[in-house]
What we know:
Strand content of chain A: 15-25%
Largest interface: A-B, 68 and 74 residues
Number of helices of chain B: 8
Number of strands of chain B: 7
Number of domains of chain A: 4
CATH class of chain B: Alpha Beta
Structural class of chain A: alpha/beta
Number of domains of chain B: 1
Oligomer: heterodimer
Order of helices and strands of chain B: EHEEEEHEHHEHHHH
Radius of gyration of chain B: 16 Å
CATH topology of chain B: Pyruvate-ferredoxin Oxidoreductase, domain 3
Strand content of chain B: 15-25%
Strand order of the largest sheet of chain A: 3-2-4-5-7-6-12
Shape of chain B: globular
Largest sheet of chain A: 7 strands, mixed
Number of strands of chain A: 25
Shape of chain A: globular
Distance between the termini of chain B: 25 Å
Amino acid sequence: MDKPSDRMLAREGNLLLLGNEAIARGCIEAGVRVAATYPGTPSSEIGTVLERIADDIGLTFEYSVNEKVAVEVCGAASASGLRSFSFMKHVGLNVASDAFMTLAYSGIKGGMVILSADDPSCHSSQDEQDNRFFAKMANVPMLEPSTPREAKGMVLEAFDISEKLETPVLLRTTTRVNHARGIVPLGPFHEIRTLGKFDKDPSRFVMIPAHARVNRLRSLERFERAMKLSESSPLNFVVGTGPIGVVTSGVSYTFVKEFLRDVEILKLAFTNPVPENRVREFVEGKEKVVVVEELDPYIEDEVLRISKGAEIKVPVLGKRTGHLPRAFEFSPDTILSLKETLPVIETKNPLVPRDIGLPNRPPVLCAGCPHRATYYATKLALGKEEAIFSSDVGCYSLGVQPPLEMADFLLCMGSSVGAAGGFKSATDQKVIGFIGDSTFFHAGIPGFINAILNDHRYLLIILDNRSTAMTGHQPNPGTGRDYGGKKTSGIDLEKLVRGCGVGYVETVDPYRIKDASHTIREALDFDGLAVVISGRPCPLLLRKEGSLRVVPFEVDKDKCIHCYSCVQKLSCPALLRRADSVEIDAILCIGCGCCAQICPKHAIGVVG
Amino acid sequence: MAGVGGQGVLLASNVLGNAGLEEGKEIVLSELHGMAQRGGSVVATLRIGEGVTSPLIEKGGADVLLGFEPVETYRYLAFAHRGTYIIMNTTPILPVQVSMGLEKYPDLSLLHDAIDEISDRLFPIDANDLAEKAGNRLAASSVLIGAITGLKDFPISREAVERALLRRVPARYADANQKAFAIGYEKMKSMLPGSKYQNEETQ
Lengths: 608, 203
């Protein structure tokens, strides 16, 4: 295998890069000195690259405890004159928004770029919010690339704009840019300062009300200068000719470019502020104008406002007129569906397969996942008793599916803990909160402390798999770190919880189902807030590290009575029901032994 | 390219993409990471040609549908057209819901027939079995990469794909994967000429 770290640091040539790799490469070329994130799909692979090469290029990189802290770390770095880059998934910017909004007031010295990776169609998210409105709300310039190649280039552009205006810049991508792969030409590395120096300037950096009022005016003045940059930016351009105009941005541009013909396209990438003169000139004299953008009518409303202000009477079609949907991501077929409105290219007739009743295949907990064992042990402990399961964000959210059905309420990172307290305040029902180790550190701790303060009596089960597993096994405060030349030891979860004064705290091994279930029962009966830490590293992580010891299991066909309770209770993908028998998939099974523990006839055992 | 998370769909798209890059082709791919990979249905698209920019393919726009699993192949048939080569690995992977008895996996011969009704370019390959013959049953994705490379007029050379593949797989599995690739390549060559799996017996 070739060494990808060498590849990412190549000085010239072309690489086939994932959008996220291209963005990381942009950071390398731009001379970013401080970068911080909390992992979140679709932005995670940026961190994978930066973590790997941080030491090679003198970058201070960190997985912060959450996105707000990441933006604060980067804000201070940029206030000290260094280039900083913080990146997160769209909902991460909700968490970071407090810092983000005020940084737009103080402004920065060294360039500061904040990336928001939006997720239209909610491929891996709880919502598909359109974060372009954050740029608008903060009066912060925004760039929207369409391809990996553009994404790399716009990291560099964003730093230039940021330093010209002394303001943070939002780089807004979507899943189909972050997870597209394309050819990216490499450029030279910027020579920039390596050590920051913070010059005290309280009137700018200490946002008390008197200073805030002054800085509010400064931020508006910066935004006027941003308009000038947007008007003259080559990132906004016109391509093609025709009587009909199409205004577009982001990945939608790639569909418009390839699947329409004979139209004039205004491709916008500098989308906050939308360049008013450019739009006015473009709209003027067109037969009609169609605005093609995913999610909310952000550009469309600007086009409508600008045309109206200039008294241009060209029809503007898009979401407001019902021509394009407001929900979910676009595809070439979205463009082709506009054939009554726009000249589309010729395409071939798709096959129309008949309905043969395909089974669904949603993502599931992996074979041997300790979360499955924790859930099953909890079910055993509850018996017939009912409880509200207040769940959280992570692989364990998948426990919502049958047969486990262990999630009843889930909003966002950390919501399990706060909401559990709410259910206790509002009902007399039993409440169990489920939260992963990384999520607990990220946003669970304030809710947890709130439960102690306000005497919320419920059981919190912390699923400690020693990792931020869903996004690619990034380290978290519980594991400590060992990358980029810095090594720290992890925080002991049990000590942390005990230190807050919780009356019942026990750690269990979920693979020992009976013992775990016994402890969980005890915790359920405890009169007060109880915490059970269910500790088992993610097997995928162990496999990556080369320390997974697989103990293969098999079904004894003579003992098996075909009750299928193993598959029906555990829904482990390694348990295969074929005709009249149950088999264990030797490739998938890691030997957690949970099915062996629940087989009523002890028909499952270690091979041999 | 369609399959189940963990089957090597992303490996295949990566290998073909990098091989194309080496030969100076314009290429765009699209992948999905994160939640979608936990044993769920996975699809990746690869577009090669002058001026390609869209990472996604329109319905009916795929020239090849490389299916890593029968049901997943069927699920994405709408991206194929009458002339699309449909290469399908015949080894099923049972979704958990099927093992639990909540859903049914369609009968394989029914699935084959349903594709044959609308296309005469279905090429079924038992990639898992061929990989086992190559020495490692985990190398099924290399068999399929070989098969697609063996298509008539495939725009990337066998040598480039093979090099890209060997750069991607761990050294200790290189032999088995190389063999699996060659078996898949030859299998496709032997099946192609007049279709209906021409010289299948020669394998």
